[in-house]
Amino acid sequence: MASKKDKFENATGMPEEGSPMTGGPEEPKKKRKKGKFIALLVLEILLVLLVAAGAVFFFWSKNKVDNMQRPAQEAEETFAPADVVTNPDIPEEAKKTMREKYTTFMIYGVDARNNRDLVKYANADTDIICCINNETKEVKLVSILRDTFLETSNGKHTKLTDIYAGYGVQESIQTINRCCDLTITQYVTVNWTLVAKIIQYIGGIDIELSNAEAKAINDYSYEISTISGIPTSYVEARGRDTYHLDGVQAAAYCRIRSVGHHDITRAERQRKVISIALTKVKAMSLTEQVGLLDMATQEGNIATNFSYTELMSILTDVGSYWIGEQTLFPFEGQYKDQRNLSTAYVYCNTLSENVTMLHKFLYGQENYQPSGTVEEVSDYITSYRKEHP
Predict the structure, then answer these.
(1) Is residue 368 within 8 Å of residue 174, measured between CB atoms?
(2) By CB count within 10 A, which of 64, 85, 124, 152 is most buried?
């Protein structure tokens, strides 16, 4: 039997694609070993690159953005922001605050094995609410736990990652709006191939690893290398030390769940990679930055429904943005895991209380009172949780 190390030297063929669950808990699937991907890294690098291009590259950069404005599926998967459903009973003052004082959108990282499955049929293992304060330019990030049990806009109940896979990106956004009283209408989605290619392009990164992390990278590298076509090598663990990681190894590092505190530690790893990579991108020449932008947008590994005008409106202030507070949803201490042999769900202790906390965190809305829609969903989840301990 070939060793794990031998796989890196004899990689052939493509891994089989999984079949995502499209229903609720009544149709459980075998839990696959997947990790989050650093969608935020890709988005921030693209922002830096587009701004660096400047007016000279206006039409060129517009073409690059146009390449991202199409989901890779059939026409029915394409949607405009105006098509996204939000709760009709959100308090008017809250809606005014969210829409006028803040720019809020979703960042998704998916486990798509090909570009056709970028906006549907792939699990969304990274689900980040990105909220920009239009006045102070602070950027707040909320990572929604992928296994959070929620209700879709058409009354289905399952985990968030499977909602994306079964119903597509539009329904994922609508589910988040429905369960959290939000008014999000736009998104950016990337896959792990793009993450690996960006890190590879910038020459890799140097990062401190524990012995366990160094070993765990090899659990993911073979698959990422096979799918992306980027060669890599086996990481020889040598204890806690600084390691130089290529693109595949860096993407694998960001997928590790077995070392540390699962998703929480994994998010910390992703932030490390983001910080190191952005520092390297900012130090690159304009020619190198333009080349990176060209590579990142030409192979269909990213999708969005932002228009060019809207994206450029954000980019004009990108130099003023600063990463502020970050948190998880459900909030720490406000959820419970439910696990059995085939499924894993995260239940809010009380959805409505988490929504109140979310609006305070993102928008400074003190003592926010959730809408009747959220209260109904919250009651259902509480009842369901009691019946499925």
Answers:
(1) no
(2) 124
Residues with Cβ within 8 Å of 55's Cβ and at least 6 positions away in sequence, in order, are: none
- Residue 356 phi/psi, 5-degree rounding, is -60, -45
Question: Hey, what amino acid is at 361?
Answer: F
Domains of the chain (ranges, CATH numbers): 39-193+299-387 (3.30.420.590)
d(CA 318, CA 262): 32
The pLDDT of residue 41 is above 80: no
Q: What is the 8-class DSSP label of residue 117?
A: G
> Could you tell me if 370 and 108 are in contact, meaning their C-beta atoms sit under 8 angstroms apart?
no
Tally of helices (H runs) and strands (E runs) in the chain = 14, 12
Query: What is the spatial distance between Cα 287 and Cα 311, in angstroms, rounded to a whole number?
Result: 22
Please count the other Cβ atoms lying within 10 Å of the Cβ belonging to residue 190. 29
pLDDT > 50? residue 235: yes
pLDDT value of residue 67: 66
Position 188 scores a pLDDT of 87
pTM confidence score: 0.80
What pLDDT shows up at residue 12? 39
Distance CA 247, CA 230 (A): 8
Q: Which residue has the tokens 């960001």?
A: 254
